[in-house]
Amino acid sequence: MVKSKAIALSEVAARAMQTAVPVIAMLAIYYALMLAILNFMQALGHRFARVASGVGHISHFTHLTTWDGPVVIPALLGVGMLILVYQLWLRKKAAIVVLCGFIVTQALVDASRGMHRTGLALTILLAMVIAASIRAFPGKVDPASVRKLRIVIPALVAGFFAYGITGLYLLRGTLGLHESNLYRLGYRSVAVAVGDSGLQFHGLAFAYRCSMVFLAMGSIILVGMMLFRPYREKAGKTDGDRQRARELVENYGSDSLAYFNLRSDKSVFFQGESFLAYKVVGDVAVVSGDPVGPADNIPEIVTAFREFCLERGWRLSFLGASGNLMPYYQEAGLRGWELGEETVVHVDDFTLEGRQVRKLRQSVNKLAKAGYTMEFMYNASIPAHVKHELARISVDWRGGREETGFSMGLGRLMSAEDPDCLLCVAYDPELKPVGFLHFVPMYPHVGYSLDVHRSRIGSPGALSEFMIARTAEFLRSEGYHQMSLHFLALSENYRDDRGEPGSAFYRGIARALDRILPVVSSYHFDKKFFPAWKKRYLLHVGFVDLLLVGIAAISAESALGVTRPSDREKKA
């Protein structure tokens, strides 16, 4: 009976702890934020310092961790606390250890200054309560940093005390020191660095004191940078991963973004019969498109990948997720923000006949009558001289800039690694290549998705319409059903055929972006082919993540490096 009661009590305690840990974890983050604010107030002057001091001492029983001393110390400490808040938000275990260690260290320092024993006990108890939430902080330290820290920390500590003790010993006459005990000189070294030594520094001694402060701060910053360096693993895939991913794409890769997951600079994560491809940008793991595999397996792989990211201190985002799969993502706890829409031409219905496509038909027929032709081939059968000529066109069209893209870019052209990719080459009347389209497959026999679109500088303006129209006709003749073209950012706000009025704010942003990137102009081009519009989303865990994952997504896509017409003009 007693044993059963003990078991019941332990189960209740376990459930209570399980409930309390997330709450304590959030309190730890807010506590660190409060410390940052109080230290900034301490640094701003005596009026603010009085407020910080009043909040900091609660009936002389406990002390919120601020640091008295020269203005620079609480100011730097405030900045450090803000960084610590960010690392706590990333759920890094090292951050909660540093916070607890800092609280205990400050409590011991305050105790040496005369802090009441009750206050010391309560402050240490606070650190113990915060430490109890460590299970909510699974983020690991970067393995490379761990190896370096094992060498760097002992070296910095030894160097600091060697320099401090030596300096105090040599300057003992100037400073009025009569002690030569190594322990006392070491303690004094720390006191000099934090500005609480009680000594008067002038001339060379003042320079020594400044050097000690900079040495201490520099050491702390260096260790902090290494300790909180974003977790990194070797990017890319092993041969086994590459082959397994390719097989899954061939079995389940019907989405227009699926094949792009085979891009060589993406890492892969497998779960059962599914995988997703991602790239780590800063502290964010950016997943491209949807997981490849059965749709009903999405909640399982997303949940597993979230745990994988938490262990590494990464936030999670999906770039270009399909709108029709949102229920599965929501089941996995993700939120979606509509990025825009993808242009999808249903080639079964595509035709150049009829009044509504009159302008497109005229553009295509004009080039056809002038002697322009198209040739279609798969990557497995491209002649070497054709590759060379098309590569030259691509380099010129890029204006000397490197390739961009992530979610809708393969990152390699005409590679034997991609035998099923489709190359559509346009020739002028003299049978010289003047442009090409490179498509990746949508399995099994669904269609093709546009990877690269290039034209020779100075080619006719209607060449793009000609190449896409002829490619649509070719795909239809080959029994395919879809041709995916471009992604149109924020298109639901400016499409003139939309069902509901969009946001004027985002419409203004899209028009402003169009001066730099082909946003609205791509829509006006694509609508000539009477496509369907497929919604694409940016997925994130919480609202606070949105800005961070948005910046990471822009960085992953190298959006700021997109070639502009002016770049091609300079090249010409």
Describe the structure.
This protein has helices at 2-44, 46-56, 72-89, 93-112, 117-131, 143-170, 172-175, 182-193, 204-227, 239-252, 298-310, 326-331, 358-369, 384-397, 463-477, 504-513, 520-526, 545-557, 565-571; strands at 57-58, 62-63, 267-271, 274-281, 284-288, 315-322, 335-346, 373-378, 422-427, 433-442, 447-455, 482-489, 532-540. The chain is elongated, with a radius of gyration of 31 Å. It folds into 4 domains: 1-139, no CATH class; 141-229, Helix Hairpins (Orthogonal Bundle); 239-338, no CATH class; 341-535 and 562-571, Aminopeptidase. By secondary structure, it is of the alpha+beta class. It has an 11-stranded mixed sheet, sandwiched between helices. The protein has 19 helices and 13 strands. β9 and β10 (433-442) form a beta hairpin. Residues 54-62 and 560-572 have low confidence and may be disordered. Helices cover 50% and strands 16% of the residues. The protein starts with a helix and ends with a helix.
For the structure shown, list the relevant keywords.
572 residues, alpha+beta, Helix Hairpins, 4 domains, 19 helices, 50% helix, disordered C terminus
